[in-house]
Specification:
The chain is mainly alpha-helical and 121 residues long. It has a single domain (3-117), classed as TTHA0068-like (Hyaluronidase domain-like, Orthogonal Bundle). The chain has 5 helices and 2 strands. The protein has helices spanning 3-20, 24-37, 43-60, 64-79, 90-106; strands spanning 84-85, 88-89. A two-stranded antiparallel sheet has the order 1-2. α3 runs antiparallel to α4 (64-79) and α4 (64-79) runs antiparallel to α5 (90-106). The model has no long low-confidence stretch (mean pLDDT 96).
Length: 121
């Protein structure tokens, strides 16, 4: 593995770790660096992950419109990689997004958001 491939993998993994830890802004930063710095064959997948993380970041900031918008934007991008991609259950992510969107449509109080709805990566 050359240095560029290694750097790409490090950025990707750091983004995953941050997302798993619910550090959504940090996840977005790592994936954005990956997406903008390297020509990727799966750039649309990484862009979908960026939008996914920003969507949940908006929930943490109580920005319901931003959350709804970004979560809806990532669906078509991630859908192209279903059912599994890079050892990630894309179908599971899409179901979690759907549950999240239904939740925020019914519950305008994001202070009470059920963080168990966040997809497992």
């Amino acid at each position: 593995m050359n240095i560029n491939e290694k750097n790409k993998e490090i950025l990707y993994q750091q983004g995953l770790e941050c997302f798993i830890d619910h550090r959504f802004y940090d996840a977005h930063e790592y994936w954005e660096d990956l997406w903008s710095e390297y020509k990727l064959p799966d750039a649309k997948f990484i862009q979908g992950l960026i939008q996914l993380s920003v969507g949940y970041f908006h929930i943490s900031n109580l920005n319901i419109n931003g959350a709804r918008g970004l979560l809806n934007k990532c669906i078509p991008k991630l859908s192209e990689y279903a059912p599994m991609y890079r050892n990630i259950d894309i179908d599971g992510i899409l179901k979690a997004i759907d549950r999240t969107l239904k939740y925020i449509d019914k519950n305008n109080n994001l202070k009470e958001f059920d963080w168990g709805l966040v997809p497992k990566l």
